[in-house]
Write a structure and sequence with these properties.
With about 260 residues, the protein is of the alpha/beta class. The protein folds into two domains: about 190 residues, 2-enoyl-CoA Hydratase, Chain A, domain 1 (Alpha-Beta Complex); about 45 residues, Lyase 2-enoyl-coa Hydratase, Chain  A, domain 2 (Orthogonal Bundle). About 50% of the residues lie in helices and about 15% in strands. α5 crosses α6. It is globular and about 60 Å long. The two termini are about 30 Å apart.
Length: about 260
């Protein structure tokens, strides 16, 4: 179905989801609804193995729509908006297909929260990133206070959230906030290359790995290790495991069938 602010293109088992809400690709209520609907469709599409999330123009996403935010004046309205954004980003983080953020420009507030919900992040060189919500008298509401400490550590996360400081993509790389920094004209190319490396692997192992990684974020280590052992055991019975090990011993590329 057509969308007002988001486009989707699928090729070679990779779905490219592009924000198109010029000039700043703000996360208004319609964008949030469209993204939620799109990820629901992609989750059910067996032809899609990896999702790339990017944006048209130079800003990746400058955050929430401040006009919408300014109209919120009650606890209920604020909590409802936060819960809606968190639900979408939780869906992306828990997606059983890898999601790669191709951050092609300015990435602030809700935009950075959106990128942090993705499993991997490729950023353009010399772009600003940050969570400046404190400057508006609020805090990040789409999961930023929870994901940033998990990614870069609580102390540095507290500094960035409490000061609202904006950092460069190069600083973000040093902190581990992004995986790669490349020239802006190569962001999508590198994201697609990363996605292609994933699509070449078996779907069953990819999904199991994502599930194990998610558990490490939400559960005690003992629970995560128990799940890892369970998933490892299940994969040992698959045809893909047999093909992978056989191909290695025969010194040839594996041909996974997702069985």
């Amino acid at each position: 179905m057509p969308y007002q602010f988001v486009t989707v293109a699928i090729a070679e088992r990779i779905a490219t989801v592009t924000l198109n809400n010029p000039p700043a690709n703000l996360l208004n209520q319609t964008v949030l609804k469209e993204l939620d609907h799109i990820f629901g469709e992609l989750e059910a599409d067996p032809a899609v193995r990896v999702v790339i999330l990017t944006a048209s123009g130079r800003p990746f996403c400058a955050g929430a729509d401040i006009k919408e935010l300014a109209a919120i004046s009650t606890v209920h309205q604020g909590a409802e908006l936060s819960a809606r954004g968190q639900a979408l980003l939780n869906r992306i983080e828990r997606f059983d297909k890898p999601v790669v953020a191709a951050i092609n420009g300015t990435c602030l507030g809700g935009g950075l929260e959106l990128a942090m919900a993705c499993h991997m992040r490729v950023a353009a060189a010399e772009i600003p990133l940050g969570l400046p919500e404190i400057k508006l008298g609020i805090i990040p509401g789409f999961g930023g206070t929870q994901r940033l400490p998990r990614i870069i550590g609580p102390s540095k996360a507290a500094e960035l959230i409490l000061t609202g400081e904006i950092i460069t993509s190069e600083q973000a790389l040093a902190l581990g906030l992004v995986n790669r920094v490349v020239p802006v004209q190569e962001v999508l190319q590198h994201a697609k290359a990363m996605a292609a490396m994933v699509t070449a692997k078996g779907r069953l192992a990819t999904q199991a790995a994502l599930r194990a990684i998610r558990t490490s974020l939400d559960s005690p280590m003992a629970d995560g290790l128990a799940l890892e052992a369970e998933l490892f055991g299940e994969l040992c019975e698959t045809a893909d495991k047999k093909e992978g090990t056989t191909a290695f011993l025969e010194k040839r590329p594996p041909k996974f069938t997702d069985h």
